[in-house]
Automatic annotation (TrEMBL):
Pfam family, one: LIX1
Natural source organism: Trogon melanurus
Gene: Lix1l
Name of the protein this chain belongs to: LIX1L protein
Family: Belongs to the LIX1 family.
One annotated GO biological process: autophagosome maturation
InterPro entries registered for this protein in UniProt: Autophagy-related_EPG5 (IPR051436), LIX1 (IPR029270)
Organism phylogeny: Eukaryota, Metazoa, Chordata, Craniata, Vertebrata
Record-level GO cellular component terms: cytoplasm
Amino acid sequence: VNVVEALQEFWQMKQSRGADLRNGALVVYEMVPASSPPYVCYVTLPGGSCFGSFQFCPTKAEARRSAAKIALMNSVFNEHPSRRITDDFIEKSVSEALASFNGDREEADNPNTGIGAFRFMLESNRGKSMLEFQ
C-alpha cells in the first residue's frame, strides 16, 4: 500500500462527501533540512493537524512515508463515532475537569473561568471530531 497516496485519497474522499475543508483536500509535506540521516518529515492535514515521522528514517522518501503513516492512522481513527464531540462527551469532560480541580458547578457555567472556557470551547465545536477540534 502506498501510504502517501492513501492519505491523499482519504482526504479527497472526505471532501467529496461534503467535509468543510477551507483549503481543499491538499496534504502538505515539509522536510526538516538535513544533509544526512535521520531525515524528518512533517505532514499537515487539510484540517490543520500536523504529524511527524516517528522512526529513524535513512531516506527522505522513508521519512515522508513514516509521517503519512501516522497521519493516516490518526485520520482513520478520528472517523470513529466515539471521537465526536457530543453533549454526553461535553458533560463527562466538564465533570472530570471539575473533579480534577475541585471546582464547583457554577464555575462550569461561567465562561470567565478556566473550566467555563473549556466548556464553551467544547460546545462551540459540538459535532466535530477530536482531530477537527485539535
